[in-house]
Design a protein that fits this description.
Strand content: 5-15%
Structural class: alpha/beta
Shape: globular
Number of helices: 22
Largest sheet: 8 strands, parallel, barrel
Helix content: 40-55%
Strand order of the largest sheet: 2-3-4-5-6-7-8-9
Number of strands: 10
Length: 457
């Protein structure tokens, strides 16, 4: 019997795409034991924006969250998303930091690390892949799918071959903006399966309305695993619904391994919280709708939900269409980077600056300046020469792997915080301000003394 397996994304990418990763641990804790026995290939539960969100918004220790999930799901493969040399942040970190982060992720419960570089510059994932394999976890090498004048089928197949030679155990096609059509998915999966001997995983979003059809054709072409989300946190900028895709595949004679009663139970646990998110405005109807314009602007789900929230907070949501129109123009100026973290944030933020200031590149963000200097790797296409000249002047961009220019990052922080655990050190390196605030508050809570007034009777 033909077989296809599922990765459930409700604990990470689904909620990142729809509610900007604001789901506290206590909300999903009641669902963990059922998720653990529902028959998934893996549970994506960490990485991406969860780390930042835990420290910044949810008053949680991301490492402790992972350990709690691990304890509650002893039978499941726990999966995380790692941005290669960027880890979970927005800049490149030294190799010693990358290696320790991977090591501690595995020690705290991660079984599968999906590793990507936002530019598909594979120099930037070599260290993370090597350390993942050394620590006995599965390294899932990732191709960031996009369309542009400089991205081709042959190029993506070449990347898959290079990933296999690097030692990854699976290949993931990551369609972060939901722009991969059913035809493109079929052709790409088929071509990779013909050239690479590794399992192929397909990740997409429903933003443009293509997701369901894309996953069906991908599996027909030989994909082994697909990413989905339980229905109440599916569709829109999230993934296609787990229940729907399971229903479709089983009708076509595939063994999914999913226990539909348990999947339905998981969905029923999340529904009340989804309703709260809708009522409070945390989940914006825009994120839930089909937006075919995304075929042009290509902003991924997590970025779109954050962009909507930022403009709403600024009382400038009426500028959304202008920002989305400006986004592909900025992307072209930067040499067509795939719009995935951190590139999506860079391009989206610069598009917002251009619109709000009323003048293109009147202000250039520090991240875009670093990109133009070559600190993120090699641009897929040709960068706008005038923009590069404006930022760099006569300075030549970096052509080597940027991490090779960085000094070790651990000694200085360990010296500053000699009593900190490795996990705390890594949190401070990745998110220094947020970690400092969180640990200070935690220490104050621990040392707080309480006095009780005894009333006379």
């Amino acid at each position: 019997m033909k077989k296809v397996q599922f990765t459930e994304t409700v604990l990470r990418d689904a909620q990142q795409s729809l509610i900007a990763t604001r789901m506290p641990f206590e909300v999903f804790e009641p669902a963990l034991s059922t998720l653990d026995s529902a028959g998934y290939y893996s549970l994506e539960c960490w990485g991406g924006a969860t780390f930042d969100s835990c420290l910044r918004y949810l008053d949680e220790d991301p490492w402790e969250r992972l350990r709690k999930i691990r304890k509650a799901c002893p039978n499941s493969k726990l999966q995380m998303l790692l941005r290669g040399q960027n880890l979970l942040g927005y800049k490149h970190y030294p190799d010693d930091v990358v290696r320790l982060f991977v090591k501690k992720s595995v020690e705290n419960g991660i079984d599968i690390i999906r590793i990507f570089d936002a530019l598909n510059d594979l120099r930037n994932i070599q260290v993370a892949v090597d350390e993942t394999v050394k620590n006995g976890a599965t390294a899932s090498g990732t191709i960031c799918y996009t369309t542009s004048p400089v991205h081709t089928l042959d190029q993506f197949v070449k990347i898959a071959k290079e990933l296999e030679n690097m030692g990854v155990q699976t290949i993931c096609i990551k369609d972060m903006a939901g722009i991969m059509s059913p035809k493109e998915a079929y052709e790409l999966v088929k071509a990779i399966k013909e050239n690479v001997k590794l399992p192929v995983i397909v990740h997409t979003h429903s933003t443009t309305g293509l997701g369901y059809m894309t996953l069906l054709k991908a599996v027909e072409a030989g994909a082994d695993v697909v990413d989905t989300a339980v229905s109440c946190f599916s569709t829109g900028t999230s993934q296609p619904a787990t229940e729907t895709m399971r229903y479709v595949f089983e009708q076509y004679g595939y063994d999914t391994g999913l226990d539909i009663e348990k999947v339905n139970k998981v969905n029923s646990i999340f529904k009340p919280y989804r309703n709260e998110c809708l009522k409070s405005g945390l989940e914006n109807p825009i994120s839930m709708s089909t937006d075919t314009d995304a075929l042009n602007y290509q902003i991924p789900g997590g970025m779109l939900s954050n962009l909507i929230k930022q403009l709403t907070d600024m009382k400038k949501l009426d500028k959304l269409d202008e920002v989305l129109t400006e986004t592909p123009k900025v992307r072209a100026d930067l040499g067509y980077p795939p719009l995935v973290t951190p590139m999506s944030q860079m391009v989206g933020a610069q598009a917002m600056l251009n619109v709000m200031s009323g003048e293109r590149y009147k202000t250039v963000s520090n991240e875009v300046k670093a990109y133009l200097k070559g600190e993120y790797g090699k641009a897929p296409g040709t960068v706008n020469a005038d923009l590069q000249k404006k930022v760099l002047g006569d300075e030549k961009p970096i052509t080597c792997r940027f991490a090779d220019t960085l000094k070790p990052g651990l000694p200085e922080v360990k010296e500053k915080y000699p009593d900190a655990t490795d996990e705390e050190i890594l949190s401070r390196i990745c998110y220094p301000q947020q970690a400092e605030t969180y640990y200070k508050k935690r220490e104050e809570e621990k040392n707080r003394t309480y006095t009780y007034k005894i009333e006379k009777v």
